[in-house]
Design brief:
This protein is mostly helical. It is 59% helix and 5% strand. The strands form two sheets. It has a three-stranded antiparallel sheet with strand order 1-3-2.
């Protein structure tokens, strides 16, 4: 959810400037949200969206209405529709206890992925399958050139018209342990310590088809 929130705020900044002819500020944003009956502060925004992903705080379920108020306004400024259900799901999945459960269910090297929802989604959606294959190839190429850390903004650019699949692509590759979040803010890189030949072997079949 962290990446999605930061991306939405980034688009809202651009939209806000176009609408109002001045730069976006979190202070003004917090004041507008508070004026609509949802007490907010820049410290809360800075805490949830800290530039250092490892330092950022995860919103609690009790903060769901505040979160929705944020994404509603950001979406309006960005010129996008706001899918409240999707954001509530992202909030639920971001909870530490839920994350531990997900990690516990993730397959280890050598295990079958047949019961994994990311795997099934890829098998059922040719567009997602092609997007996964495209991103994996480009990530692997960057690693071979000695530049393994790639931010999600670049991955979004790679996807082009399929950028709406960003979260699903990252989820699929993460489940297969082909990429993981690095310590560098908002970046993704291959799992540290896994040599290229092993990565190539793991990624030889994505979505059931050979690379």
């Amino acid at each position: 959810m962290y990446d999605e929130l930061r991306a939405l705020e980034g688009k809202a900044k651009v939209g806000f400037r176009k609408r109002n002819g001045r730069a976006y500020s979190r202070r003004e944003f917090a004041r507008i949200v508070a004026g609509r009956g949802n007490p907010s502060s820049t410290s809360t925004i800075d805490g949830w969206l800290h530039a250092d992903w490892g330092t950022a705080k995860t919103p609690s379920p009790a903060s769901s209405e505040l979160l929705i108020a944020w994404v509603q306004l950001w979406s309006k400024w960005a010129g996008e529709s706001c899918d409240e259900g999707r954001w509530r799901t992202l909030l639920d999945e971001a909870q530490p206890s839920r994350s531990r459960q997900v990690r516990a269910k993730e397959p280890t090297s050598g295990n079958s992925n047949s019961d994994n929802p990311n795997e099934k989604a890829c098998e059922d959606d040719p567009r997602l399958q092609q997007a996964v294959r495209k991103v994996f190839r480009l990530l692997h190429s960057c690693t071979q050139r000695g530049a393994p850390q790639v931010d999600d903004g670049l991955i979004r650019d790679w996807l082009g018209e399929d950028s709406d699949l960003l979260a699903q692509v990252i989820g699929f590759l993460s489940t297969r342990q082909l990429i993981t979040r690095s310590t560098k803010p908002i970046c993704l890189t291959f799992v540290p310590g896994v040599p290229n030949f092993e990565l190539t072997k793991k990624g030889r079949t994505l979505g059931g088809d050979p690379l």
